[in-house]
């Protein structure tokens, strides 16, 4: 039995840009500062209640439910029915419904539930962290498995509960970001579409934007835009910042995030972009070269290629490549949690292990990385190759893809995961990011001054979340 409520993949991937429900919350701690996975991971024997034969799964897209259905299919003796509830994050619907279901408990409560990067800290470290079972309570020797699988460290940091240092959530994707560029635009501008040449041209790996602006001028002279809109750079800036939006209960504007005001203004004033807003039709049009000016590229992880660009690229499909971004960052990801009150922890642990920790060729991540998960037993519906959380799996996987003209994307995306930082997230990110982006748009449009944009941002944050604002 499945309850499907208004799910849309592109809408979900836009979480960082959507407005949250605006509930006031208490500040979360920083797991990494309290030891993270260095704390002893307590393992207990997990059991199943023989009278319970249903596992309740809550998610915001059908991605994880499909994985679980595949697990059941591949393990015919598993013996459990899966009851799936999918509620899209559009209009902030998912979190309030999940919160109520966790609070109510009982037979209908989630046994497994999902949280996206925009709100994972609420469930792993913040207000709702007390509902989560530790992975040790699922019967998993998580410390040993994390080491064996070589799980990306930021994923572990984010999924570690600060109150006890226990892992309560892990993801299956690695979402380190890079620069995805159009080969034809690069070749016309610099005489080469080679990733090493384009990396040099845009300042890949330099840790600053100086060379990027020189590249923008060179592209402008040829009639091209360096990116589609300021949102393309926002994710690189946001997730490369040192601190999160809330530090010790106070709203904090990291200098790198404040710099986005100047970056966005520079893009606008110099005509370096097409002034699109991410997750809108003009943004998608730039992926197929149908915008005001042809665009060099987009910043993002492998999932941006698989789930967004590939389907919107039109005739440009295959005319893309990827190189290192000027600054390292990550964007997105989904974490899996289990309910501490679940009566089928052993079965839940088996599923979560297969999705997040199994680094053998029989695990989900190997099939995911190599594009061989055929949801409907049909190669035509198999997943695209993607970067996964396990470094062990990535080392034995092939990342060559047609979209990138046969380039092995793992050569760029896997090292990018080393730059990913799990310490700059807060449980308020969905709300505060949206509020900040709105303030920046007001400034770049010339409607308010820079100082007024910051003042308005602080006022609006104070009205939406329970943090101290100076």
Provide a descriptive summary of the structure in words.
The chain folds into two domains: 2-174 and 332-395, D-Maltodextrin-Binding Protein, domain 2; 178-329 and 403-464, 3-Layer(aba) Sandwich (D-Maltodextrin-Binding Protein, domain 2). Helix content is 38%, strand content 11%. The chain is built from 19 helices and 13 strands. The strands form four sheets. A six-stranded mixed beta sheet has the order 1-3-2-4-13-7. A three-stranded antiparallel beta sheet has the order 11-8-12, sandwiched between helices. Strand 5 and strand 6 form a beta hairpin. The chain is globular, with a radius of gyration of 22 Å. The N and C termini lie far apart (50 Å).
List the helices and strands and how they pair.
Blueprint lengths: L1 E4 L3 H5 L40 E6 L3 H12 L6 E7 L6 H11 L7 E5 L3 H5 L17 H8 L3 H6 L1 E2 L4 E2 L2 E2 L6 E5 H8 L4 H8 L7 H12 L8 H9 L7 E2 L2 E2 L3 H15 L11 H7 L9 E4 L1 H11 L7 E4 L10 E5 L6 H12 L7 H7 L20 H5 L14 H7 L12 H16 L5 H15 L6
Parallel strand pairs: 1-3, 2-3, 2-4
Antiparallel strand pairs: 4-13, 5-6, 7-13, 8-11, 8-12, 9-10
Helix pairs in contact: 10-11, 11-18, 18-19
By DSSP, the count of extended strands is 13
State the share of residues found in helices, binned by percent. Answer: 25-40%
**Low-confidence blocks of residues:** 1-36
CATH architecture of the largest domain: 3-Layer(aba) Sandwich
- The coarse silhouette is globular
Helix count from the secondary structure assignment: 19
- Classify the beta-strand content into a percent band: 5-15%
Output the strand order for the largest sheet: 1-3-2-4-13-7
Largest sheet: 6 strands, mixed
Sheet/helix structural class: alpha/beta
Terminal CA distance reads: 50 Å
Average pLDDT rating: 89
Number of domains: 2
User: What fold name goes in the CATH topology slot of the largest domain?
Assistant: D-Maltodextrin-Binding Protein, domain 2
- The CATH superfamily of the largest domain bears the name Periplasmic binding protein-like II
CA-atom Rg in angstroms: 22 Å
Question: What CATH first level of the largest domain would be assigned?
Answer: Alpha Beta
């Amino acid at each position: 039995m499945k309850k499907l409520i208004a799910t849309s993949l592109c809408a979900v991937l836009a979480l960082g840009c959507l407005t949250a429900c605006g509930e006031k919350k208490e500040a979360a701690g920083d797991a990494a500062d309290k030891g993270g996975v260095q704390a002893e991971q307590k393992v207990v024997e997990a059991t199943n209640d023989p009278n319970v034969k249903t596992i309740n799964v809550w998610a915001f897209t059908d991605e994880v439910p499909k994985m679980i259905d595949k697990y059941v299919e591949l393990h015919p003796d598993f013996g459990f029915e899966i009851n799936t509830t999918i509620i899209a994050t559009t209009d902030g619907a998912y979190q309030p419904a999940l919160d109520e279901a966790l609070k109510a408990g009982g037979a209908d409560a989630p046994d497994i539930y999902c949280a996206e990067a925009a709100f994972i800290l609420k469930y792993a470290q913040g207000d709702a962290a007390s509902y989560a079972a530790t992975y040790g309570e699922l019967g998993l020797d998580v410390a040993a498995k994390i080491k064996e699988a070589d799980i990306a460290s930021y994923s572990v940091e984010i999924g570690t509960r600060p109150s006890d240092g226990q892992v309560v959530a892990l993801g299956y994707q690695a979402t380190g970001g890079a620069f995805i560029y159009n080969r034809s635009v690069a070749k016309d501008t610099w005489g080469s579409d080679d990733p090493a040449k384009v990396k040099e041209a845009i300042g890949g790996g330099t840790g600053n934007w100086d060379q990027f602006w020189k590249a923008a001028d060179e592209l402008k002279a040829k009639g091209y835009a360096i990116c589609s809109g300021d949102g393309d750079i926002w994710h690189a800036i946001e997730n490369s910042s040192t601190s999160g939006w809330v530090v010790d209960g106070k709203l904090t504007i990291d200098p790198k995030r404040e710099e986005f005001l100047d970056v966005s203004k520079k893009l606008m004033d110099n005509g370096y972009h097409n002034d699109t807003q991410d997750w809108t039709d003009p943004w998608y049009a730039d992926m197929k070269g149908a915008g005001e000016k042809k665009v060099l590229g987009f910043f993002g992880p492998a999932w941006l290629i698989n789930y967004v660009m590939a389907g919107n690229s039109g005739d440009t499909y295959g005319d893309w490549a990827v190189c290192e971004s000027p600054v390292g960052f990550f964007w997105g990801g989904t974490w899996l949690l289990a309910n501490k009150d679940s009566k089928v922890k052993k079965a839940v642990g088996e599923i979560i292990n297969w999705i997040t920790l199994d680094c053998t060729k029989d695990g989900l991540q190997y099939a995911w990385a190599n594009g061989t998960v055929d949801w409907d037993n049909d190669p035509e519906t198999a997943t695209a190759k993607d970067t996964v959380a396990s470094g062990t799996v990535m080392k034995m996987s092939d990342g060559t893809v047609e979209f990138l003209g046969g380039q092995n994307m793992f050569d760029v995306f896997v090292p990018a995961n080393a730059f990913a930082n799990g310490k700059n997230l807060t449980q308020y990110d969905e709300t505060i990011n949206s509020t900040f982006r709105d303030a920046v748009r007001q400034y770049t449009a010339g409607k308010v001054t820079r100082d007024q944009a910051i003042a308005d941002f602080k006022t609006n944050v104070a009205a939406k979340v329970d943090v101290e604002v100076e």
